[in-house]
Amino acid sequence: DIQMTQSPSTLSASVGDRVTITCRASQSISSWLAWYQQKPGKAPKLLIYMASSLESGVPSRFSGSGSGTEFTLTISSLQPDDFAIYYCQQYNSYSPLTFGGGTKVEIK
Amino acid sequence: EVQLVESGGGLVQPGGSLRLSCIASGFTFSSHWMSWVRQAPGKGLEWVANINQDGNEKYHVDSVRGRFTISRDNAKNSLYLQMNILRAEDTAIYYCARDGVAAGIYFDFWGQGALVTVAS
Fold first, then answer.
1. With contact defined as beta carbons under 8 Å apart, do A71 and A4 qualify?
2. Are B38 and B46 in contact (CB under 8 A)?
3. pLDDT, tens only, B51-87
4. Which of B95, B106, B109 should one mutate to test binding to chain A, selecting the residue with the greatest count of A CBs within 10 A?
5. Contact A34, A89 (CB under 8 A)
6. Interfacial B residues in 1-30 facing A (CB < 8 Å)
7. B111 touches chain A (CB under 8 A)
8. What is the mean pLDDT of residues B82-111?
9. How far apart are the C-alpha atoms of B75 and A81, rounded to whole Å?
10. Pairing verdict, β A85-90 and A33-38
């Protein structure tokens, strides 16, 4: 199975900050990576697919980069609505599809 | 508007069975892979199973293989998860999720989730 490791597990930041979350795969997954945002009591929401493609309707302050085993999600200027938990997911291997452990972005 | 609505969750005793359903609308259901993803209380996301457009290709995570079965009925725009021999560690919110339109299996739409609690 491909293991996905996110860092940090918690991130404290202020509105307006530039925020970067890292996701590392235990083996190369090319660009088969997605990022999701989840708020309390809600289903996850797709932000990025294919490592760097922005999902329709997602604000342009979100961006993704990377390939192989190391990936990043960047929020260029953190907004109040962005405080949430973020997950990466690999889909290089269909079985099993695996998620990272999550990164909680909280208010500093 | 794409909608996925789960039902069938509830409280069940260890060793019991439950069947989750997900009714899809707003898109051509028969054109998409579909998945179940779960989230234990306070924990992260875990993919459980997925199924191809025709229903003849299915995958299950090791921890549920032999106990859970994913299926679909394209005529009813419905996805199912039959869960047998339930264990306490199966307690979670179960989300129905649609495969995205680009290549590969990621999830562009999710249902609101169905809570399954396994306890005596």
1. no
2. yes
3. 999 999 999 999 999 999 999 999 999 999 999 999 9
4. B106
5. yes
6. none
7. yes
8. 95
9. 39
10. antiparallel
